[in-house]
Amino acid sequence: MLRLSLILLAIPTLALAQEPLSLQAGQKLAQASFGEYLQLLALPNDAINPPDIQKNIDFLERAFTQRGFVTKQLANKSKPMLFAEWPKKIAGAKTVLYYMHLDGQPVVDKEWSQPSPWQPVVKKRDSSNNWHIIPTEALFATPLDPDLRVFARASSDDKGPIMMLLAAFDGLKQMGVDPAFNVKVLLDSEEEQGYPSIPDVVTASKHLLHSDAIVIHDGPRHQSERPTLIFGNRGSARVTLVVHGPKQPLHSGHFGNYVPNPAVRLSRLIASMKDDQGRVTVAGYYDRITLSDAEKQILADTGDDEAAIRRSTGIKLAELVGGNLQEAIQFPSLNVRSMAAASVGEKASNIIPHQAIAEFDLRTTPEAPPNYLFGLLKAHIEQQGYRLVDGAPSDQDRAAYDKLATLTLGSAGRAVRTPLESPLGKWAYQSLQKASLSGEPVRIRMMGGSVPTDSLVEMLGAPFVIVPLVNGDNNQHTFDENLRVGHYVEGVRTIVVMLQAPPAW
Amino acid sequence: MLRLSLILLAIPTLALAQEPLSLQAGQKLAQASFGEYLQLLALPNDAINPPDIQKNIDFLERAFTQRGFVTKQLANKSKPMLFAEWPKKIAGAKTVLYYMHLDGQPVVDKEWSQPSPWQPVVKKRDSSNNWHIIPTEALFATPLDPDLRVFARASSDDKGPIMMLLAAFDGLKQMGVDPAFNVKVLLDSEEEQGYPSIPDVVTASKHLLHSDAIVIHDGPRHQSERPTLIFGNRGSARVTLVVHGPKQPLHSGHFGNYVPNPAVRLSRLIASMKDDQGRVTVAGYYDRITLSDAEKQILADTGDDEAAIRRSTGIKLAELVGGNLQEAIQFPSLNVRSMAAASVGEKASNIIPHQAIAEFDLRTTPEAPPNYLFGLLKAHIEQQGYRLVDGAPSDQDRAAYDKLATLTLGSAGRAVRTPLESPLGKWAYQSLQKASLSGEPVRIRMMGGSVPTDSLVEMLGAPFVIVPLVNGDNNQHTFDENLRVGHYVEGVRTIVVMLQAPPAW
């Protein structure tokens, strides 16, 4: 904390015109929006079903126009995205694009401990840490219990933040003020499907979306539950490696000790890629990554409780890629996300498999983009004596080469980072500090996961910052997703304060 | 070939009473049994499903009783085995127990290039080496095309040989003769599951099964397609290795480079077990195996066409365990029969898997039995820093040990060998020589695969010999299993001839 304060001294103080909204006022704004929030949550939003997406888009378009926004549905096959713009433009002022998404992860109904993921319920936790459904009216009581939670698909990821933004504009209206900069909003309809259409949609509406900075409200706050700013994210590249064995599976009794086993060969290849402490040994993999002492200090200041992380994940020792978790995720990773050779369990038989497969996800960094890492991996495998072929090897390949494999680069996203000390970074930090009811903001240099910043940042040529607003234990991407009501209130307050902070860059 | 002839000179000639059955007569016997054979193949026989096994047993019991055998279903939980005995006993004559199995390997339907592995089809190969389904009637045409094949699970392994034995008894009946020795038959119902019940069943019926020698019709003939005699087999021990990762699958973006990946750890373990030439590097694994110059000579005399084997299996170089294939399989093996971590393909997601599994089959030799090899493997894994636990590790285990794994020894069979120059060995050689239409018989000291000779030989105190009858390229244990019709005909003939050869010991 001391160190963080010292850094803060170096940041010039911005003159914020107004005192932040009171907590009580934030609660009232939140409560006034809860009815609309519950209606929105009752709309299924798995992007696999375009008519559902259309209903969400129409609902949200009404919500934005009712508040005075000018809107446009951006054509995207049968799953349009929603664009909204605050009409009172300030000449010469910066423009901030808010990016959020209205689609949600798929659901498996029976996993949920409520009648339906699409029927939001309010729950309260008892002294034994069990959740109980209580009447929805509790959301509208005074005083509001901040520990209540709303359970539904997308309650946190990412409909909650969309409603917080809408409630924040209700707040500005009550206060009789306008945002301190020009505001645009883009709501993605396919974020959970890997945002396949962002490049096309952004290209088609480049002029409309033009902006000076991008603010993303998505994902959970830091584990400490302090206000959180994220300045970058790793990209994700999918790579498939198939090691070819005999033409077809062979009886392991008749050929064991004679015909090479592709599962053993794949194992030897993977073993050659990492050392016993989890460090990638593919030549050059980490070469481009350097962390200055100042950067290491910022990473350490995040204050992760690593003992708790190791306990909750069930490991004794972490890998030694970085000195701590935050350092580790500044480096590209080489993760085996799955592996298969023949069938295990009841379907297993005594064979030499004809092939063995490993699927990797490479987390990339701005310095080490997908093609660069893929090239290193390819060279490494060839150095182990492999001939890389496209698809199944021919008889000629088999006669000519002892070791045969196929390596394929699948979908690949690039990593992006905005400098912490950039004008956008400073503005975001200070306005978040001003709004905070939960201590000094945490600044995360680059998070481990991936969001579609690469397409947005590249196509729009604007820097970005992620301001997550929801609780860390929200179960996003799985069953019993929820949003803590206190986080909702703080989120509304945060957005109100940030909207009033004139960009200093 | 010269060397083989010299060996033959040392074997005393037996007086065989009758000329062998003509090829034409063999074809007629085969064709008369094809209808029954196809019906038998239409009965699913994965021993995981006891009611299916019962249907096979009932079908075969009828087939044996119709030919005059006395039968008995030997109780074995819900998967009885079938015992059959030829009722006309010859006082003072030797008794031979024929051992075969009616169960088959598991199937993965979609892998097969026919509607179902349980709907046998007849196929013919075109000039481009592609197989085409043709009407089943072709099996009953005159002349019979020996290159036709019947495709179905268990067509070769091991229902084909069972039907050949039945057809051979039809032949004896037509010829008006009886076997030259007393005949008993035991049909196993769980051979492909590692024959877990043979010891119990044999113990319970020891008197019934008592015999002077065991003849096993299972497995393929030698690659040269000459008549084949096998005097020993490796055992098979199943071992499962589970490397434990985090408590549950984790987001690979947030934890990649921090939480150790169990698929990588499993790969490193497997890599530590074998060198780049396929030699097992687990300490002591090969220590007990020595081959004398004389033994090496017998192994070389097998005359394998290794260039052809490499070509047909699609490999450029063989592993360097032995100087040739026959030498290689005199050593124990350590085969990875399957491997899995999370899901590959469409169900894959960007996670660190919570565990990685490898299933091994260890082929054992008389000198290196299952428990000995398992002990070496266990010690090896512990030497790599692993704490071995039973099942899922506890939180205490996770806090105390960095590397956690579970190693389990499943079903395990021992290897057995009968001396080539024993009286049984000589009798089998000469009668097979007499039946041969395909050159001098090949003698194999110890084959790579496993049959339950250990329990049978040990419990009954009788020597054994394996007389494989089916084609080498029958795809047993995998999809598109098949039996070449010409082999079926030769198999029937061979059994007829052997049944007429009085044991000389």
UniProtKB/TrEMBL annotation, chains A, B:
Upper lineage: Bacteria, Pseudomonadati, Acidobacteriota, Vicinamibacteria, Vicinamibacterales
Molecular function in Gene Ontology: metal ion binding; peptidase activity
One Pfam family named in its UniProt record: M20_dimer
GO terms classed as biological process: proteolysis
Protein name, entry field: Succinyl-diaminopimelate desuccinylase
InterPro entries: Bact_exopeptidase_dim_dom, Cyt/Met_Dipeptidase, Peptidase_M20, Peptidase_M20_dimer
Record's keyword terms, sorted: Hydrolase, Metal-binding, Protease, Signal
Domain Peptidase M20 dimerisation: 232-385
Signal peptide: 1-17
